[in-house]
Design goal:
The chain is mostly helical and about 45 residues long. The chain has one domain. Helix content is about 85%, strand content about 0%. Helix 1 packs across helix 2. The protein is elongated, with a radius of gyration of 12 Å.
Length: about 45
């Protein structure tokens, strides 16, 4: 993968993570965005 492809892939992952975090926060307002972001980041790193 070239540098540009890696950068685009990283942007895509961050975009999808942010959308997922927003949706999780809507479904679980008590947990909030910080908890959802921490969970999503952990899932991404463990893949």
């Amino acid at each position: 993968m070239c540098t540009q492809e890696c950068a685009l892939y990283g942007d895509l992952v961050r975009h999808l993570r942010d959308r997922c975090v927003e949706r999780i926060a809507e479904l679980d307002p008590i947990g909030g965005k910080d908890a959802a972001k921490a969970w999503a980041d952990q899932v991404i790193r463990s893949s």
